[in-house]
Amino acid sequence: MSKADVIEECKLVYFTGQKITTNLLTLTMIVLNMNNEWQERAREEVLQVSGNNKPDYDDLNGLKIVNMIQLEVMRLYPSTSLIRCTKKETKLGDMSLPAKVQLFVPLHLVHRDKEQ
């Protein structure tokens, strides 16, 4: 790869990370707006950990409820789906899949399956 290609790849990773973080924070605010009880729990925890000061980097480890909320948002609204390709003939449950078949797994549906 040329130096310019490496720079472009770094930019792509940086901006993708920003987009994913922005989406996570936006969805977290939406979910908290839909559930006032958890919104209040998160607010109380932030006030308990940092008082009336702005939370700093060291305070983040003490925000257990906020972390649980963000993990749940990521579970319910994953940023991607899985795409896998079989290398050889594969048995999946009662099905037999030939080699080189692409499987698309919509994680947002898997994470909402009440039977699992």
Give a structural overview:
It is found in: Membrane. With 116 residues, the chain is an alpha+beta fold. It is built from four helices and four strands; from the N terminus they run αααββββα. The chain has a two-stranded antiparallel sheet. Strands 2-3 form a two-stranded antiparallel sheet.
Key phrases:
single chain; 116 residues; alpha+beta; 2 domains; 4 helices; 12% strand; flat; Cyt_P450; monooxygenase activity; monooxygenase; Cyt_P450_sf
Helix-strand blueprint:
Blueprint: H1 3-34, H2 36-50, H3 64-76, E1 82-85, E2 90-92, E3 95-97, E4 102-105, H4 107-110
Helix pairs in contact: 1-3, 2-3
Amount of beta strand: 5-15%
Overall, the morphology is flat
How many H/I helices?
A: 4
Helical residue percent band: 55-70%
Low-confidence segments, given as residue ranges, are none
Order of secondary-structure elements: HHHEEEEH
Please count the beta strands (DSSP E, at least 2 residues each).
Answer: 4
- Strands of the largest sheet, in order across it? 1-4
Distance between the termini: 44 Å
Overall pLDDT score: 90
Query: How many separate domains?
Result: 2
Gist of the model:
The chain has 116 residues and is α+β, with helices and mostly antiparallel strands. It contains four helices and four strands.
